[in-house]
């Protein structure tokens, strides 16, 4: 133990001198997407000396002036001179020297610089002065306060007994509490008697510190991080060095030193070469695991290197109108990084998902080319942590998916939609399932009938046919053996079945709330009961199908007769602004399915949170909807007449005459997971949004 402490003290002695070097710290790496090949420095325009001092005094104030001598004003005073605006409760100006003495709520603005104080003395010609109990904001990047702040020249400030930070002064994530500082913009700040604080908690003290104030990104050593009492892994010192390459690429190199020899290193590379590249990050890290089997009981094991990596890339406007996304990651030993890494999400991580896809969405169809891999960790084979890990793997190498949204057939009320896919599928490591490598082709066309009904009530009959071809199938000899490992045979399988259903939605009730919350000005709460009867023909050889995702095992039960009833609550919101349109914010559903042909009951529930459509991230928290079902819509177009009937402060919308509302197509999210959702299965009803616009 004493030896470990001595080694840790040596690490501190090596690291602390970095804190006092000119490049001890660097600015926070930005995420600029602008391509620049030259650096430009902003030079303020040269202002001619002299000029008129413009005075403004609030109503009820007073102004007293002696020509060519002085001017005194009280009560909401503001003066403007060249590029300076000075405001205070009371202000005295020497007309000969242009010295201004301001008292009470003093605020001075000059370009991007603002200083606020209780009192101050400022010369309008030289743009210099002294302020007391003041705080300053410089170019929205540097913030400091002080009992006394002195502006020496255009870009040099001196402060006493204050706080210096690049965060918001109200609650800074980090700050320097200093006795004295000389700050030069776009250069360095010389700080004396410095106490570094993180979130208000003192971390370390140093007599002197040199801090960069450059606007451009500059390379340098990042703030070291120290971890004490790190269990069996020892105390750790983490160092980082930031290097920018122009305005669109940068990298950060890491080196971690550990008192017990768990030394590691890695780098983060980021790039944004154009506006089309929304994301470009590569992170690689490796650490020396000197004792893989150490748990305080067993003998040490042979040292080895553990690693992890993640690469993310997202780009729009690819040739052919495609969008490309890559997100791959992997760990050599997930258990080790759960102990080593400081990311708490790793403790609950049970699967690692990687994918790469090209997607093309149009109003009438979507096309996806997807390859992905999902590793599911089920723990160790025994209670011994060194025993092999049980890991199931599902891969699509690749999958081609084509989907047609509901299209009206000529002028009839019949709509046609279709889902289809062709996939190369690989599974391995399943506990009871098979290890398989096979191909699958699937097609799922649907015809639906849109009946003319009131807005608060809808009936939708639908007929679907599904055909799926498999190049391999389960061995019949291993299907019904309890606890046995299933096996596959190279015997092709064709599965067909038809499905008809009638869905009834309503009567729907709603209420509008005029509340300003989260950027919305009005909300509408809709309650919709649903009832669905489903009839399915006999499914041949379903027990021999290799289960991979919802194409093989749809969420809709494959039984002869079934009934599903549910209650859905939806919250729609209308944003501020003249061009804002209502959208669904969240929904909550409770449903139950009961089989009429054989004993079967399934109860599910879930809720969905819809993000702002301007955001590219898609967050869904819900029970998965049925794959292979077209997005439900309200169809038709035209005018309607409406009456409203109040029901317990909610409104039951009644529509009469005219034609039913126009079809609203819903674009799906590209399938990116095993058991993936190939579309957004939330019904978006145009009449609800129109009613919300009108405040109904």
Written overview of the protein:
The protein is mostly beta strands and 696 residues long. The chain folds into 2 domains: 53-216, lipopolysaccharide transport protein A fold; 350-693, no CATH class. It contains 4 helices and 36 strands. It has helices at residues 2-15, 334-340, 476-479, 686-693, and strands at 54-57, 62-66, 70-81, 84-94, 99-110, 113-123, 128-138, 142-153, 156-165, 174-184, 188-198, 201-212, 220-221, 225-227, 236-245, 249-258, 264-271, 277-289, 304-318, 322-331, 351-361, 365-380, 389-408, 414-428, 436-449, 458-470, 473-474, 488-489, 493-505, 509-513, 520-536, 561-575, 583-595, 601-609, 641-647, 650-656. Strand 16 (249-258) and strand 17 form a beta hairpin. It is extended. The relative contact order is 0.06. Mean pLDDT is 76; it is low at 1-43 and 610-696.
